[in-house]
Structures are given as C-alpha cells and as structure tokens.
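fwd from M.: "can u put these together and see what the complex looks like"

so here's what she sent:
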Amino acid sequence: MKILVIGGSGLIGTKVVALLRQKGHQVIAASPSTGINTITGEGLAEATKDTDVVIDLANSPSFEDNAVMEFFQTAGRNLLGAEISAGVKHHVALSIVGVDIMQNIGYMRAKMAQEDIIRQSGVPYTIIRSTQFLEFIGGIANQATKGNEVHLSDVKFQPIASDDVAAFVAKYALAAPTNGIVEIAGPERFDMYDVATRYLKYINDPRTVVPNDQPAYYGGAVPRTALVPAGHAELGTISFGKWLSTQLQQA
Amino acid sequence: MKNEGGKENNRHSTPGKKEAETLIQTVEDYRREKEILLALSNELTKVREKNDLLHLFKKGIKGLFYISHTIITLIDYKDETYTPFLLDNEGSPIRTHDRYQEMVHSRFSLNEPFIQSVLQASAPISFLLKEVMDLPQSPPFLQVNYEKGVTEILMTKLMKEGKPIGFLHIYTDKPEGFSAEFRSIINGIVPQISGAVSNILKNEELLKEEKEKSFLLDFSSEIAAVRTKDDLARAVHGAFRKLNPSGGFVIRRINEDKHTLSIYVYDMPNVKNRKIIKELENTSFEMNDGLQNRILNSAIPVLLNTEREIRRGITSTYLQYWKQLGIENFVGIRLRNGETNLGILLLDIDEINVRLLKGICAQISIAMANIIANDQVSKTQGEQAFLLDFSKDITRVRTREELQHAIFTVLDKTMHTKLAMIRVLEDDGIHLSAFMYDKSLFTKVKDQFDNMAAHRITVDEPYTAQVLASEEGIMFSVEEEIKSGNDYAGLWRSTGLKNMYALPLRVGDKSIGTIWILANRLSPLLVKGICAQISIAIANIQANEKLLTYKKKLEIENDYLKEQIKTIYNFSEIIGNGEAMQRVYRLISLVADSNTSVLITGETGTGKELVARAIHNASGRKDKLMVKVNCAALPANLIESELFGHERGAFTGATDRRIGKFELANNSTLFLDEIGELPPDAQAKLLRVIQERELERIGGKQTIRLDVRLIAATNRNLDEEVKAGRFRADLYFRLNVFPIHLPPLRERQEDIEPLANFFIQKYTRSTGRKIKSISPKVIQKLRSYTWPGNVRELEHLIERSILLAEDGKIDDLFIPESTGTDKTNPALLLNRSLDEVERSYIIETLKRCGGKISGTGSAADILKIPGNTLHSKMKKLGISKSDYFS
C-alpha cells in the first residue's frame, strides 16, 4: 500500500514510518522539509496521488489559541480536500483522550475542530485518541515549576510510551477504517503528581513536587478523570518503570 | 568482490636502484595525483549547473582514466529512495537498453543490502556487477548495465553536513577495473563533488524561483493592462501557453443567481467539436454539484481525476464532455477577491505548482473583479442613460401606440424581457381591463391568453388585490404559483421564465392599474423607475383619450343642437286646450316619470316630436339632452353605425371610433322618429338593444351597458306594416308599450285659432312685421280647411301669409291649390271641386290605359263615354299628354 504520513519526521511519525516500511509498504514521510506542506498546499496533490492511507500526525508549530486553531483547520481542510480528490481510502489521525471534555483549553478546541473536519469530510477514517505520552512528563513538570517546586494535582494520568503509540497507529492504519474513535492509553494509571515525583527522583532532579487537589492540565482546570479513558481503551505494553529504565540508558 | 580503501599498497619494495626508481615513480605518481586533484578541485568549485559537472566528468576524469560512464543519483528522504539526477547522455552504453527510460525515472529503495553497504562504507566502494546484481533486492540498474557490457561499478556517497545526499556511480567495462590511483583521486574530490551537487541544486532552485518570479512579473504587467474580458482572455491564454503549450483552461464565473457557474473566458485548443464547445459555453452549471463547490471551498489548488469524479456520482455534464475529450486529470483553483469567491479556474494539467498557480489566480481574480465592477458600472450607466431616454420618450407619448413602442423597447433593452400585461382601472374604480400586452410573449398559449386578457377582472381578484395593496409590488415565483393552482401561472410557465413581477401603477397616491412583467430576475430599482414613468404616461393617455371623447361628444351634441335649433318648433308648450289634446296631455303626464317606452303615432305635422320632447322634459332625465334620430333620413347602410357606433377599423372607411346615438343618449332619452322606415336589419339589432339594455359598437368586443329611455314615433300604421311583413312584430310590441295617438288638426277645430295666433306672434317677432289682426274671413277659411299637413302646414301658411300681408292685417290666406294627384289623402279629397275630381279621375284612367283615349280598352271605354266627348272634356279641363305620361 502507498501510505502518506503527515508529520512523518516527528516523534511518533518517524516511528510509524519505520514500522510501516518494515512491513514493506511504500511510505512517504511528509513534512514541510520534504516539500509537502498542508498549510500552503505545496506538494500535497502529488503526495496524495494514488495513496491508499493518509496518517495525520502533524502538530501545530505554535500553541497560541488562535494559531493552533488556524493550523488544524487549514491543514485539515487542505489535506482532506486533496484526499477526496485523490480518492484516498482511509484517513488516520491522532487525537487526545478527553478532548471533548476539555473544551476550555484552546488546544483541545483546535483538536476537536480537526476531528470534526475529518468526520464531516466523507473520507473513511479512524480517529485514535491517545493519553499523554510518557515523553511529556518532563515538560509537564517544567510548566508547573515555580522556583524549586513543582505544583501538580492528583488528576488521573495514564501515560503511554511513544513506541506503543506508533505501534497502535501503524496497526489502525493497516486495518479497515472504523469511521469512529478508538482510545489508547498506557498500562498503568497514576495521580499526575505521583508520576512527576517518581520521574524527577529517577533522573536526580532537585525539584520537589507539591501535590494539590485542583486538577489541571497545562494551566486549564479539568475534571479529575479527563485525561484517562472513560470506557474501553487499548493499553500499551511499556510500563512507566520499563520506560524510565530505557530513558536512563539513552541519557 | 568488494574493494574498499584509498590506495592499493601492492608495490614491491626491493632494495637498490630499482627501489630508487620505484621511489621516484611513486613520488612522480603522487605528484601527478596531486596535480590532478588540484585541477579537479579548482574545476569543481566553479561548477554551477549540471552541464558544468558533466563537462568536468567528460574532460577532466575521462581524459585521464578510463571509465565507461558516470551518473549521479540523489536521495529523497521522504520515501527513502534515490533517483537519477545527472546522466552521462553521450558516453553511457545503456542508453540503447530497453529499460533505459524506466531506469531514468525510477526511484530505487535505500532499504536493500547493496546500497546500504555503500552508505556504510567510508570511502568509494566497487562491485563486480555479476556478483551483486542478482542478490535479493538489488537495484535493477546493475542488471541493465551488465547487459550492456559493463563489468564493474564504483559507488561513492555524496555527503552534506554529515548526511548522505546522493551517490556518484562510476562504471567501467574493462576487466582491469578501477586503479588505486583513480580510487584515491575520486575519494579526494568527493567533498568537492558533493559541494558541486549542492550548488547545482541550490542554483536550480534559485533559477526556478527566478523564472517563476519573472513569469509572474510578466503576467502581472499584462494583467495590469487588462480592461475587458477579452483582454483577460488574451493575457491568461498567453500565460498558460508558456506554462503548458498544449493544455487548455476554463474560467467559470459565479452567476448573479449565486447558484450556478457559467463559462467566462476559456481556451480549449484541443477541442474541435463545436457542439461540445457550444454546450459548455451555454450551460449554467450547478455550483453545489459536488465538484465546483469543493474547488470553491478549497484554499489550495485541487488535482482532480475526471474518471474518479464521475464515479463519485457527480452528474454535471461538463465532466462527461471532458471524458469524451480525453481529459484525464485537471487542476481546479478558486478565484477569490478578498473574501468573495468569483469563480473557478480549471486547468488541463497534471501537476500543481502551488506558488505559481496562487500567484496567477490572485492576479486573475483582481482583474476579474475589476472587469466585473467595470461592466457593472457601464451597465448601470447604460441603464441610466436608457432610462433618461425612456423618460424623454415618455413625455412625448400621446397615444397608446407610442407608449407601447416606448415600453416594449425599454423592457427589452434594460431587462431583456417583454411586457406580460398592463391592466388599467376603469372609471368605476372596480374593473380592470387589459390595456397593453406583448402578444409575442404568449404565442404558445395564444387562445388561452386572449381569453384571459379579454376578461375584465375586478380589484377583488386575489392577485390584483395583493399587488394593489403592496407598496412596491410583489414577485410571484412561477413554480410556486403553479403548485398553488393559480390559473394565470400556466400562462406564465409557457414563457419559460421563472418569476412574475407585478407592480401597482400609481400616480401620486392613486392606483391606476397594474403592470405584470415576466423575467428571471429584475433590478427592483430599475423596474420601479420605469413603472413610475409608465404610470404617468398612462394617466396622460387616459386623460387625453377622455378629453378626445368629451370633445367628440360635445362636437356631436353641438352639431345636433344646431340642427335642432333649425328644425324644432321653437316653443316648449303645446298649444291647444281641446278635448283631444287634453287626453294627450294626460297620457304625457302619466308616462313621463316612468322609463317606459312610448310610441307616438299621428299624421305628419301633428307635433309628435313636441310630444316626445314634452315627455322628456317632464321626466327625470330632463337635465340631459334628448337625442333624436330620424330613421327615414339615414341611408340603410349607415343607420346601424349611427345608432350603435363603431370601432376604428370596423369597416372600410371607419377611420375613427364613433359613438352611436344610443351611447350619446345614455341616461337620457332617445327619440326615434319615423321608426316605420327602419330597415329590417336595424330593426333586429334595435330589438336586441332594447331587450338587453346593452350594446356593442360595430367591430367592438366590449359590451356597453345602457340606460336609455326610448320614444319612437311614426305616421304609419304600424299594425298594417307588421301585417305586411315590413316591420317586425316583436319590435312593434316592444315599442308599443305606451301608445299616444295625436289627433289631426282637422279634429281639433277649437285649437286652430289659438295656434294661428301663436304662430302670428312668433313670426311677427322674427320677421319684424306688425300684424294687428286677422280678418274673420280668414279665420273662417282656416277652420274650413282640412289641414292635411296639420299644425306644421298651419305654421307655414301663417308664416307665408305674414310675409304676404300688407297694412298689418292678414286679409287672405293662401291655401294651396290641390295638385289633384294625391287622392289617397282623404283630407285632400274633401276639398275638391267637381271639375278637379273629374280632371284627376280622367288623368288616372288615362294613365291606367297607357294614354289610349278611344277604342277598346281605352279610357273612353272605361269611362263609358264616347271618345269625342272625352277629347272635349280633356280640352276643357286642360289635360295634356304630360299629365298622364308622367
């Protein structure tokens, strides 16, 4: 099959591209640097030509509310427009667990807009809603840091390793379109502050985590269980501990 | 056999002279190598384009070492492949291979052992083709080269910023392969070659950008000069010719209805089929057809496949035509000015250069918006100029024909439509009749239309009521009206137009009618302007027509009055108090107030007209003029038109509309004198009018309701006329509702003296003579006369006597001598002398006998007197031949 991976040079993208190529598929890793730009439309028509599956893993270069909304809407419309014209048979996109209940956060509104564009496009699709990646923990701790303290809540948190995410994406891309949402998550559920504490301790970070009971995600108040799957979800195989050990090896 | 490494180190190191020679040779070799490297490096730094590099390979490398050919391939990381970039078009032995073109355009995977080993090698690495070409996943070019006699390949990876960007392939068909020196030199110049390739790439990119920019600049200056649609077509045509000489383009514009798009400008050089072009030119394509709306909603150009779009279920006919024309793929881009979509551009090309197309489309969009705005302005100006002309025309309009011409022209020119109908409110303020319409609009349903147009409607007719009640008119959708069962909508639909615009015609606040215009779309402002003008024009024409009618009526009345002055007895009262006249007076007063038809009979000169006038003057209609028609005085062929009027063109010579006496007598009295003389045709028609109380003008369709009081008079005995078949019995009964018989003067002896006195007074006044008295002898004479001409004769006799009187006294009367011919008149018979009787009887007999005086069957024979006696009697009585041969 010919598969186009938008955002093919990113964290998940490179892994998905490698996985699919291993399986012998003709994969195009699209990114502005390889001449395929979903915002300007450059190279899009050629890239989607004779393509069976498009996997959209692209992320906005800016996280400002308006910019991120503009990015996902423009990219989504351009990409799906090109897919319709090229006769693409399956559109796979990566979204976020709880995106629909965190609409107070600009980024979530933009991701929801992206999902809506996919649902309304008429192209057969599979939307994969994932929990946060384990790779995000450092970043989450950083944005919650004041001085030497990291203020994090007991919001429920079930992070998944990017390798697991990539494997799920590749799996769904090769399966028939579900025309619906599937949820994926890590194998274990924590309180957010707990994960951060363990992570910082593991990497010998001097900051201390101060737990609170105001569940929030990147500054936006969210329900305590917003970030974890409510119903059935496919769970990754890489546990927090296992992941931590590989991190240390790399570091 | 893999052979890796810079130099082979297989030189012998025997001591002595040979060693020294070898050393010198080695030094010499190094020196030569260094020189070559230096020279190549210098050359490589100058490389800016593919040709420079090719030249260098050909002259610089091939001149020094033997190789068969070289190529350079570049890595594309997006799909992890490498593909030919630079080809040795002259030296390559594989150019004649069947698969050469395939090789040139192939993308070879990086994920296979052969190329992976090249990537992992740190220096140029050579392979014997026969050893590697059949390994699994090996690229096919190895096999292709082998088949053309190539034996060995030297692969060198080209690096940029620590990352491989491509490969230098060097081939040889010599069994000795590549020398160590050659390998060493190649290894030495790899960085420069890599740099050269980067330079070429950068340069090509720059050139391409440069070309695009200059193209857009050229296009921009051409577009700047565009003023009209044709200019635009030329500019766009020129630009796309440069980009793609064989392909066509189409610009479709969103139509005013905002639902469809139609061709605006196009160039389809490959389309020879006129029919298809015409079809594409003349069709409005639905905007939301599943394709055009996608293009309009896409911010970026869309590459489309004709077959796929058809399979998707898009039914717009243009796709079918394109399929027929063999257009497989095409590009669609929206044309947008600011936030407004203007249309779409469709291009017969297979690939998209987003930057270039966006640049072109931005320019086209601006030009198009300008042209459209320009067109709009000049159209508006044209309309305004035309309205001005129309306004001037309208002020000159005096007749319907002129107005019709002005309206038809203005509707055609400004709105490309025709007048469906103007209905005008009649004087009663209730009925509306057809005033003007364009028959050519309804040719398909002519009969039905004529019917409906002839039908007078009232202001309560639902559609008319709505229109009259509306401030600025109403638009009816023909489709919807059909559904709601409007009778008129059927007519409307036959024209194929979508909407009926109905507006009230008003002058000031007063509605004067309605105007109905069929069109798909009308500019409300324009319609309003035109309607205001039309209203005034119609009001003027109506006033004008009314004026003309009044004028004509007054003229007729005037003529008539003049005639009346000449003829009527100039007194308003009837003289005479005798018993016979008392009876007449009583009848007059009985009948006057009613509307009953009256039949006045009596001998000539008995004053039938006076009685008719008395009835009229005593009736409620006395304020209006009584109209008199003398049926005997009119030629048979004119009498109908005289009575009932005629329309213009009703018959030869009917150059004008004429109002008949009946219409003239509306709300008044019509006096039909000498009714007994009316020809049978006219009798029939008269009967109908009396029965129906309405008439139609000759040649007219409109029926006119009448309220006319009828008084007929005759000196004939209508009973006998009916029996003789000369007068219709039914008409007689209609007329003879209230008969008044006027007695002859000889039966009212007592009235003779007052009448005589009356006439004397009348004529002394008018002649200026003074008549003091009438001698008793004369009075006696008046009384003894039988008055066959009745009162009229008396009047004339008095007039004559006054003129002949001397000394202010009437001494004698000049009662006419009888001519003796009129023996049927009993009055005349009574006054004759014996001689007169004898004379007239002889003349009559002679006439009967054809002038034969004597002999058998002669007058003498009939009179039973001898012929001689007759002769002498004739001589005595003065009977000449002229008397009986007249």
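replying to her w this: The helical segments of chain A are 11-22, 44-48, 65-86, 106-121, 137-143, 162-174, 192-202, 240-250.
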